[in-house]
Amino acid sequence: MSSIVVSNNGKVAIVTGASQGIGAGLARAYRERGYAVIAAARSIGTSEDPGVVTVEGDIADPDTAQRIVDAAVERFGRIDTLINNAGIYIGKPFTDYTLEDFNALIAVNLAGFFHMTTRAIKQMLDQGRGHVVNVSTTLVEQADSGQPAALSVLTKGGLVAVTKSLAIEYASRGLRVNAVSLGVIKTPVHDASSYAGMAALHPIGRVGEIEDVVGGVLYLESAPFVTGEILHIDGGQSAGH
Fold first, then answer.
1. Which residues lie across from 41 on neighbouring strands?
2. In angstroms, how far is the first alpha carbon of the chain from the final one?
């Protein structure tokens, strides 16, 4: 299939977990910046916008990751940015976790990252430029006894570690790798009635909005001298209490 450029700047972004919440907000924001967007999720409808291609599937399956990358390259000819937003969270006391919980978290949060990122980076290296943003949680560094989530933190903490590793590995080859570390963000994942209580977890006194995350990711996108950064969008949680 020949490449079709429909964006103003010729750039292409892949956003995983793009059907709702943060992912949908990021896909919309990149499109508004003139990027063509590959919006991927387990369940996602088609888009009438010729600059948006949707891909349905589970990133824990390497075939899904390949279809996402193929869609970007075959339709638009390149990949400039990969946002590894798709992930799952299971919070419970450590000894209550099951093998099924463990396997699910590893499959999506780590294997899914691997399947997507290895494929995207290969394309970016051919281009000589690219940017990867990983989505993590501030619980990696600021554990909360009221929110036990050891296995979720184990997997999301892996994304923080690999962000720095990949940033250094590819810094001399035109690729940047950054991460955002989030506090509680208002998304469909949470019960709206819980926000008042969760606001107290954040020194700034409120939970985050999707626009807060979008602003942080777009800053990283616009900062060519920034790589290996873990940007905390957490209302001050990482600074202390």
1. 56
2. 54
Contacts of residue 217, Cβ cutoff 8 Å, sequence gap at least 6: 26, 29, 83, 133, 180
Of 56-60, 144-148, 170-174, 191-195, least confident by mean pLDDT is: 191-195
Q: What is the 3-state secondary structure (H, E, C) of 114-173?
A: HHHHHHHHHHHHHHCCEEEEEEEEHHHCCCCCCCCCHHHHHHHHHHHHHHHHHHHHHHHH
Q: Are 192 and 148 in contact (CB under 8 A)?
A: no
Q: Tell me which residue has tokens 């450029």.
A: 5
Here the tokens at position 177 are 């790798």
Site of tokens 């000819």:
77
What are 175-216's pLDDT values in tens digits? 999 999 999 999 877 777 778 888 988 999 999 999 999 999
Q: Which two tokens stand for residue 99?
A: 């093998």
Q: Tell me: the pLDDT tens digits for 50-83?
A: 999 999 999 999 999 999 999 999 999 999 999 9
User: What does the alpha-carbon distance between residue 18 and residue 43 come to, in Å, rounded to a whole number?
Assistant: 9
Q: How far apart are CA 152 and CA 102, in angstroms?
A: 9
- pTM to 2 decimals? 0.94
Distance CA 205, CA 194 (A): 14
